[in-house]
What we know:
By secondary structure, the chain is of the alpha+beta class. It has 13 helices and 8 strands. 55% of the residues lie in helices and 14% in strands. The longest helix has 32 residues. The strands form 2 sheets. A 5-stranded antiparallel β-sheet has the order 4-3-2-1-5. A 3-stranded antiparallel β-sheet has the order 6-8-7, covered by helices on one side. Strand 3 and strand 4 form a beta hairpin. It has 4 domains: 84 residues; 48 residues, SH3 type barrels (Roll); 107 residues, Alpha-Beta Plaits (2-Layer Sandwich), CATH 3.30.70; 64 residues. Helix 6 packs across helix 7 and helix 9 packs across helix 10.
Amino acid sequence: MPVRLDRSNPREDNGVNDPSVATQSAPRLEIPSFLDVLSALWSLAPSAFTLLLVIALALVLRRWLERSGTSSGHKMRNQLILLAVTGFGLVLVVLLLPIGDTLRGQVLSLIGLVLSAGIALSSTTFLGNMLAGIMLRAVRSFRMGDFISCGEHFGRVSERGLFHTEIQTEERNLTTLPNLYLVTHPVTTVRASGTVVAATVSLGYDVSRTRIEQLLLAAAKNTELDDPFVTVMDLGDFSVTYRISGLLTEVKSLITARSRLRSEVLDALHGGGVEIVSPTFMNTRPLADDRQFIPESASEPRKPAPEEAGAPEDILFDKAEEAEEAESLLAKVAGLAEQIETLQAQIKEAPEESRASLEKQLSQLESARDRQARKADEIRNREEAGD
Length: 387
């Protein structure tokens, strides 16, 4: 007997033909409309506009601050201003995001946590160098263009920033020193009013002290040092150590003056018949009894002073020299600006018959200010091109 299948049995078809079951098992995908997308993008418009505005403001502000000055104080001020503007812009962008107050508070808390963790982890470097830079600026132990010595580093200051100080060494190289290093190590600054240049030489006991002092003083005078003096540094077992010193008022020629003093000492002693050799000096060659160890070139005419052929400092410390010149020009520009403001106030209150002469003075001051500012800009452009 054939078996008849009942297709209406719900156990047999498992609800395949049931429209309600089919609807529940296949959910519909809702595609957002164009208006929904546009609305979502529009809600982000304030944050995006604020972000672009902050970036543009930072770029414009950076350019303006760079044009306003290149001195160390200006650089430190510029970095602090840009850092504050960036932080304020970041917080403002977060506040304008289309999110709930709870989520916004969590994002701000996360930013604060990240900043706190970054400062805590880098407190010995980032924050330490920043505070050290502020301290160096407040103490004013050195300025742009000064010769400084810190540890094994010696050179002229060519740049001062919030986190580092750059010096130009005797090899014309640029060395970057963290401000924290300068604060934690003794810094020796050559005074701009003058410094003592010295040279040391060891001579035997067989030469009269008074004769040596006369020759050394003559060498210092040929070097054009002020108030030279000789000191006996040490009475050794085999020799006496002498030191000739003198005041150098033009500190920019420090390297040349040191070399020239040693050269003059060498020429003066050899010209005076004094041997610069150790008493234990030995030579196995047979020599005459009256043979002295003085180079024959000592009798030749003295060569022109190094300044006549161009001082080495002009090449060694070119960037430091330009940085010092730029700072001096900016100081002059600031002084001229104050004079211009004072003169403008006087013109407003002056009677009509005396305004013409005051306006002429004002025009001259403005021209002088513009010239100094252009020179400072040219120096800054050369520094940027050289870097």
